[in-house]
Design brief:
The chain is mainly beta. It contains no helices and 8 strands. The chain has strands at residues 77-78, 81-82, 88-97, 106-111, 117-127, 132-140, 143-153, 161-172. A hairpin with a 2-residue loop joins strand 1 (77-78) and strand 2. The protein binds calcium ion (CA). The site of calcium ion has 6 residues, from loops. Calcium ion (CA) binds at residues 102, 104, 153, 156-158.
């Protein structure tokens, strides 16, 4: 692909393979109109095909604003975060049924699996529902991994009823 040498733009000196080359004043540019890559580096050994070294904090690569997707790019992290820490992952509905009796009022706390938080929830009353009202359905104030559902008898009844509570649990990114 590369010939024996590519001329550097700023001083006209050749690019010599196998030696250290230095471009002092301005960027050396390769411009072409091709359907394939302009530059192709193939390393048949165990090492990388390209190494970019920059000063601390400087961007190692820059692309133009309308650039498309980098095909087959396998990036492990974005903005220092693992994929499991970005957006919403691992959505899971966790349910818990409370005591089946006539006690009023009563609550059920649904706990998400370790590492997950409850981003939503709700539930239903099972049994004699006529006189039962849900008065609380919320994330636990002191524990974001739990959802609370509470209900009471609007008119006292001897009938049994049970809270069937659900929590929508997800792996959430680190704030
Ligand atoms: Ca009762």
């Amino acid at each position: 692909m590369l010939g024996r040498s590519v001329r550097l733009a700023d001083d006209g000196k050749p690019f010599i393979l196998g030696q250290a080359n230095s471009a002092g004043k301005q960027v050396s540019a390769l411009v072409a109109t091709l359907t394939g890559p302009v530059l192709k580096l193939t390393n048949k050994g165990a090492g990388a095909a390209l190494q970019l070294q920059v000063a601390a904090g400087a961007p190692p690569i820059k692309v133009n604003a309308v650039a498309g997707r980098a095909i087959n790019l396998d990036a492990d992290k974005l903005d220092g975060r693992d994929a499991s820490q970005i957006g919403v992952n691992g959505v899971e509905l966790v349910s818990k049924r409370g005591a089946d009796n006539s006690t009023s009022s009563k609550s059920v706390q649904v706990n998400c699996p370790a590492g997950k938080i409850a981003v939503g929830g709700g539930g239903r009353i099972v049994g004699t529902v006529t006189n039962i009202a849900i008065h609380e359905s919320r994330q636990h104030y002191g524990d974001p991994s739990a959802w609370l559902l509470s209900a009471h008898e609007v008119n006292s009844t001897a009938d049994s009823w049970v809270i069937d509570a659900d929590a929508v649990c997800v792996l959430a990114g680190t704030p």
